[in-house]
Specification:
By secondary structure, the chain is mainly alpha-helical. Helix 5 runs antiparallel to helix 6. Strands 1-3-2 form a three-stranded antiparallel beta sheet. The relative contact order is 0.07. The chain is extended, with a radius of gyration of 22 Å. The longest helix is centred in the middle third of the chain and has 31 residues, at 88-118. It has helices spanning 4-19, 24-35, 42-49, 53-65, 88-118, 126-150, 154-163; strands spanning 40-41, 69-73, 80-84.
Length: 179
């Protein structure tokens, strides 16, 4: 699969991955598997992307931890093969859940501990206590909203996404500028 558009996609996905905090090699492995019709084994991935075996192995482990790539067995071949989740919505939800678990949940926990430890501390300016408390409440509310939205059926989420800002018309006073 050495089509110039495929190569461009893989390279761009690697660049975007690095912008999103994902190792470039990991993102390129994902792009290759996403575009592959058949499962691929690690040696094929190394050859197709020009990556070291260790980079591919680490990338496959990372992608499996996000549950967007899975190991499959191919009859007659003892090697492990890998395939990417092709359902874009499912992939988005898995990535979002994993990023929340790794990044947002520890932040909420830390901010909660900080807010609690600042209570009644005269040596800390009030604005510091207030801002840490507001940040904790904001991120905690955002995580609660995420949990609520995540429980909605996929069809509802797709409809909401397609509605965009027009969804504000359904809310009393929605769609009106606060200015």
């Amino acid at each position: 699969m050495d089509i110039s558009e495929v190569r461009a996609f893989i390279l761009h996905w690697g660049e975007m991955g690095s912008q999103w905090g994902v190792n470039r090699s990991v993102a390129q492995v994902h792009a290759l598997l996403y575009l592959s019709r058949q499962p691929r084994h690690a040696e094929e991935i190394c050859e197709a992307l020009g990556l070291a075996r260790s980079n591919v192995s680490n990338g496959l482990k990372e992608l499996q931890s996000y549950q967007i790539v899975r190991r499959v067995h191919v009859e007659g071949d003892r090697r492990d093969h890998f395939i990417a989740d092709a359902d874009l919505w499912d992939m988005l939800m898995k990535i979002t859940a994993e990023r929340k678990k790794r990044e947002i949940d520890p932040t909420i926990h830390l901010l909660g501990e900080l807010a609690e430890s600042l209570k009644g501390r005269p040596d800390v300016p009030n604005h510091v206590h207030e801002r840490i408390g507001r940040m904790h409440d904001f991120i905690d509310n955002l995580a609660g909203w995420y949990a609520d939205v995540r429980r909605l059926p996929k069809s509802t989420l797709v409809t909401l996404m397609k509605l965009g800002s027009r969804v504000a018309r359904l809310i009393p006073g929605g769609g009106k500028s606060p200015i």
